[in-house]
Amino acid sequence: xxxxxxxxxxxxxxxxxxxxxxxxxxxxxxxxxxxxxxxxxxxxxxxxxxxxxxxxxxxxxxxxxxxxxxxxxxxxxxxxxxxxxxxxxxxxxxxxxxxxxxxxxxxxxxxxxxxxxxxxxxxxxxxxxxxxxxxxxxxxxxxxxxxxxxxxxxxxxxxxxxxxxxxxxxxxxxxxxxxxxxxxxxxxxxxxxxxxxxxxxxxxxxxxxxxxxxxxxxxxxxxxxxxxxxxxxxxxxxxxxxxxxxxxxxxxxxxxxxxxxxxxxxxxxxxxxxxxxxxxxxxxxxxxxxxxxxxxxxxxxxxxxxxxxxxxxxxxxxxxxxxxxxxxxxxxxxxxxxxxxxxxxxxxxxxxxxxxxxxxxxx
Length: 363
Ligand code: SF4
Hints:
By secondary structure, the protein is α/β, with parallel strands linked by helices. The chain has two domains: about 5-165, Rossmann fold; about 195-360, tm_1862 like domain (pyruvate-formate lyase- activating enzyme), CATH 3.80.30.20. It has 14 helices and 14 strands. The protein has helices at about 25-35, 50-60, 85-100, 110-115, 115-120, 135-145, 185-190, 215-220, 225-240, 255-270, 290-295, 310-315, 325-335, 355-360; strands spanning about 5-10, 40-45, 65-70, 105, 125-130, 155-160, 160-165, 195-200, 200-205, 225, 245, 275-280, 300-305, 340-345. It has a seven-stranded mixed beta sheet with strand order 2-1-3-4-5-6-7, with helices on both faces. It has a five-stranded parallel beta sheet with strand order 8-11-12-13-14. The radius of gyration is 21 Å and the shape is globular. The model has no long low-confidence stretch (mean pLDDT about 95). Bound molecules: iron/sulfur cluster. Iron/sulfur cluster binds next to helix 8. Iron/sulfur cluster (SF4) binds next to helix 8.
């Protein structure tokens, strides 16, 4: 019997300013299409009346088998404003469930750092932690066909009043060339309104920095994307009129061999002549050769996660650089006329007036 393709509505409710293009929803859109599912995006960032906009989108394009809401951040990480985002997500989930009888699935980096707690708080039906591409597609297809879902890797669900969860799913990126498509989100609109193009060259980090959410959200094993896929994705975004980018890798230079490969591919494809880009990097490992290659590949600036220049604090934080790394890193950037900034993390356990002064004086 013929069965129409299931439809999933992907909802971006991250209204932080300046707006950041919802990269994961673009990746999810490609993955759903690849699995024979029709994705629709409701990007509430640009809607004057978000609920009315959502109502019209659902009425016009539904019925949907699932509503997927991305939780990029739990709060705004600002000591001054202390904005907590989950009440709004909970309200949205309740509205989707009650007004539209839509099952709601949550996912995203913010969700993945404490998935059961967020699921419970927001009272959503399902959660996906780790990479969402495969799990969301399987979930939509199985719900559409009335099949069981409880064995799906990466899924959280309710069972007899408890949240149950299966191990997170970390997909094999070399098999995901379709992620380069980038056609669901209006990336050009974000760009002309002051945002930058964004993409990932890898996921995961094997570091042990005590405060970092990245290994939790994206896994402790690094998974690298082939340079050819990254170049293709840059080209998709250039074709949309974007010429300035910020790479979303937690640390572009880990491992350095992959960073060098990406830079060489940008130079060989001559994309380096058409764009400028920024990246987050770790002070180690950072060589003179990599600094020079990044410059040649179009890098316009680096944000180094330095955290502290107090060696006592660096060791407490689980970092693997020291003051000599910071001096070297600055020298290589200056030699290559590569602008850079450093992020400091003030107030971690054990911090005191002496360690703060030491960091600031050194920087
Ligand atoms: S190296 Fe960077 S991404 Fe990796 S755990 Fe440390 S801070 Fe996080």
